[in-house]
Amino acid sequence: MQSPSRTFSSLVHYLTIIGLLLATITFVLGSLADMTSSRTVFRYKNAFSVIATPLEVLISILYGGLASVDKELVVPKEFQLGLLPDISFHAVPAIVLAIDHLLFSPPWTTSFRQELTFSTALAFAYWFWVEQCYRHNGWYPYPIFEALTTPWRILLFTFSGALMAGSTEALKIVYKALNGV
Q1: Closest to 62 (Cα-Cα) out of 74, 77, 72, 50
Q2: Contact indicator for 74, 142 with CB cutoff of 8 Å
Q3: What is the pTM of this model?
Q4: 16 closest CA partner among 141, 105, 131, 122
Q5: Average pLDDT of every residue of the chain
């Protein structure tokens, strides 16, 4: 496999990188909103947070779950990171975004049906993107995709969409409990 940064899509075929990109945009918008007291920027930050936070929670759960079974399902041996960078990429963004949502943001107003529809559509859009990258690169970003047949991939992406929607709903429940809303 060639260096992932020198391929079609560069590093943007990794869900981790997509999540980090959305998290970074959310953090930058949050910082700008705090510095400028702009309600408009704060609304944009909250809009990104509704997507980035559940996505990062999903990434943490999927990565942690798969890595606990066999880390080579998600990262080839030659690209594995040390513990600190690994936690920084796969856990810290979810934790910080969740804290920001739970303590410093307004409640999310989405319904579970909207969350499930959006999350599942996002999961399958990502699968489509991964397959496009595979056609150009000749390899998948995560070794688990190579190991799964198409029916198992359908199950994985359906489960991921449901898990992201469930994470969104769980964050809303915790938000209500903490904030009395």
Answers
A1: 74
A2: yes
A3: 0.91
A4: 141
A5: 92
